[in-house]
Design a protein that fits this description.
CATH class: Alpha Beta
Structural class: alpha+beta
Shape: globular
Number of helices: 17
Strand content: 5-15%
Helix content: 40-55%
Number of strands: 12
């Protein structure tokens, strides 16, 4: 039985000191005029296939910067800063777009897919992205965000799943506090139905939105909405994904694995091509062994950490996120872990989806109500209840670390609930209207230029620059080694990679 169902988990000082975190931050490369960059991934940044800290996400123009695992929130932020400094120096006249919602985009088919070389492993990544384009459109995939990877020593898979259930129930609070995408360039929704309002020509918004990225226009999938994945335990979660990864899905069968020209359109015709295609506000994760599939790793060795996936880029923060936000996430995740965690139900899963859409699109609306345990509750009342429960945890963390940092992070959240004008989503709209004539593009271009200047003005220590330069060179050598060592045809490699037996350890078959 999940120990969370038996009552709160007592946390020891050793566990709190053993907390670990890491960041993955996506950003679009853009031209000075705010249009998507069409240049290849800069060679100075190494191989997007093999570099441990600098890669690309969906598009060739969508950088993803990855930190290592850190014992301190400030250390985590400092590494992200160093990677940013190295990257900015390689971009010449280009800059990183500081909003989660994308810049000026070309026609859908002209958005470049990530390219990873000619190795079988690299080709799988590009075909997968091609499939995403066929399934959801390339524009949707250019949305960017920040993922927060978090772990605590001594936790079982059941404890992590208890955390995930509570996180999903209370994730609205993070959308409300840290959502920073209430508006979007009209090019993003060209030809699509939407509920947005025009602020000025070229800019669409919703007046009380917090995170359009996490709403109906963001990372959503009508097809995946039929996949009511339960987080009650690892066995059930894995079984849901197994089905989605192996059973044909009619709409994707119609696309076909290959086109009439014989070129691959997608990896397979199942609801999910691979595990990463499954959208969710949080994922259970495990560090992979060479060539291992994520589902196999979870089944073989259990949950190692969780990945928070709903954080917007904050355009007012040079790195897209502040160390204070990381500390709030730490307290919030401990709270989700400690609280009793009832099993989820299909009815509750549907209610949570409705809550997410309400907060994403109307979160700052006065008196907005959410669903909790079958009843209506005012968002701000529920939010204040949660934040007050965080205060003892923050005090406990501060006592362990000899700081007041965690209490300050929780106090700032409470202030944001009481004064919504302080929230990033409100500040974005205020700044857009006051300083940029209501233009989303003008606002983000201005913030992107200011961010580039601020990061370039900071000195990068010679040893850090040299280490990152060496990693770039090494990653190019590793990519080349993969390409010359391939012996299988791509068709044979893909058949092996997608084989259903690779999803389950032999001892569990």
């Amino acid at each position: 039985m999940d120990r969370n169902l038996l009552g709160p988990i007592a946390l020891t000082e050793q566990q709190l000191l053993g907390m670990r975190r890491g960041l993955e931050k996506e950003s679009l490369r853009v031209q000075e005029n705010g249009q998507l960059a069409t240049t290849p991934h800069p060679e100075q940044l190494g191989s997007a296939l093999t570099h441990p800290h600098i890669t690309t996400d969906f598009s060739e123009a969508q950088l993803e910067l990855i930190t290592g695992v850190h014992a301190g929130a400030q250390d985590c932020i400092e590494e992200l800063r160093q990677v940013h400094q190295f990257v900015m120096r390689a971009l010449d006249s280009e800059m990183l777009w500081v909003s989660s919602m994308p810049c000026g985009l070309p026609d859908d088919d002209s958005i470049p897919l990530g390219r990873y070389g000619s190795s079988n492993r690299g080709r799988v990544k590009t075909v997968y992205r091609n499939g995403l384009g066929y399934r959801y459109g390339r524009r949707m995939q250019t949305i960017s965000g920040i993922h927060y990877n978090w772990s605590l020593p001594g936790l079982s898979s059941d404890a992590y799943f208890g955390l995930i259930r509570n996180f999903r129930r209370q994730a609205f609070l993070l959308l409300y506090l840290f959502g920073a995408s209430p508006s979007v360039c009209s090019c993003f929704v060209a030809g699509r139905e939407h509920r947005l309002q025009e602020l000025v020509p070229g800019t669409l918004y919703l007046p009380h939105a917090t995170s359009l990225r996490m709403g109906r226009l963001g990372y959503q999938s009508d097809a995946q909405s039929s996949l009511a994945v339960s987080y009650n335990n690892l066995v059930g979660y894995a079984a849901s994904l197994q089905t989605a990864l192996t059973e044909p899905y009619p709409a994707y069968e119609a696309i076909g694995v290959r086109g009439p020209d014989g070129e691959y359109r997608q990896l397979r015709t199942s609801l999910l091509q691979i595990e990463n295609e499954f959208y969710g506000t949080m994922r259970p994760k495990r560090v992979l062994q060479s060539g291992e599939r994520p589902l196999h790793a979870l089944r073989a060795r259990g949950v190692e950490y969780v990945e928070v996936r709903l954080m917007d880029l904050d355009p007012f923060e040079p790195l897209g996120i502040s160390v204070q936000t990381l500390r709030f996430l730490d307290v919030f995740l401990l709270h989700c872990l400690q609280q009793p965690s009832a099993l989820d139900t299909p009815h509750e899963i549907a209610a949570l989806a409705r809550n997410q859409h309400r907060v994403a699109e109307r979160g700052r609306e006065p008196g907005l109500e959410l669903e909790r345990d079958g009843a209506k509750v005012v968002l701000t009342d529920w939010a204040q209840d949660i934040v007050r429960q965080l205060q003892p945890l923050a005090a406990q963390l501060d006592a362990v670390h000899g700081t007041h940092d965690y209490a300050q992070a929780v106090d700032a959240a409470l202030q944001g609930i009481r004064q919504p004008s302080l929230l990033p989503s409100a500040r974005v709209l205020q700044c857009m209207q006051h300083d940029h004539g209501g233009s989303f593009s003008a606002f983000v271009r201005s913030r992107s230029r200011a961010t580039r200047a601020a990061i370039l003005a900071q000195p990068l220590a010679a040893q850090h620059e040299a280490a990152l330069r060496d990693l770039s060179a090494q990653s190019l050598r590793e990519q080349h080694a993969l390409e010359v060592s391939d012996t299988l045809s791509f068709d044979a490699y893909l058949a092996q990679y997608l084989a259903p037996e690779r999803l389950t350890p032999t001892e569990l078959i």
